[in-house]
Amino acid sequence: MDITRLIIVAVGGQGNLLASRVIGETALLSDVPVRMSEIHGMAQRGGVVESAIVFGDAESTIISDGEADLLVGFEPSETLRALNKCNGRTTVISNLSPLSPFTVTIGKAVYPKLSQIQELIRAKTGRLIAFDARELAEKAGNVMAVNMVLVGAMAQTGILPLTVENFKEAIRTKTKKAFADINLKAFDLGFAEAEKAG
Description:
The protein is of the alpha/beta class.
């Protein structure tokens, strides 16, 4: 089986780890070999959380610079920071709703313009799907469902060897029952948004 490499970057508290668990469960339901690793950088304090997920017959979860087939960023500047993992064929999905780092909040740094971030990503990758995932999560019924919006967009690209049905089954089993319907709606909204991006 071909190897597909996915990097997910987020800020602590955005639900990256739950998204990774849902994706891992989807792979198991799909009988697709999967390996995962996570890096937690002061996650509770808004630090970066990065997940590397490798599908297929890979021996390692390490995704070197230029190796990612798909990069998903839950926060625009974190997406930009992970750009070194991409190449000219990589598809990038990025949330456009920023979470300002502490240095920006206290006036010690300036947040880059969203248009500039998108230009830099487009210049180095094959495709960029960028939209306000937070807005879609609110539409689904919970601002915390940004992660499932982005999982839906990921599923739509067809890059991962996983079916929509198995994604939805994994959402039902891996997320809290009280939020399952909201998470499924968020998934559908993200899927539809990525479809619009063409």
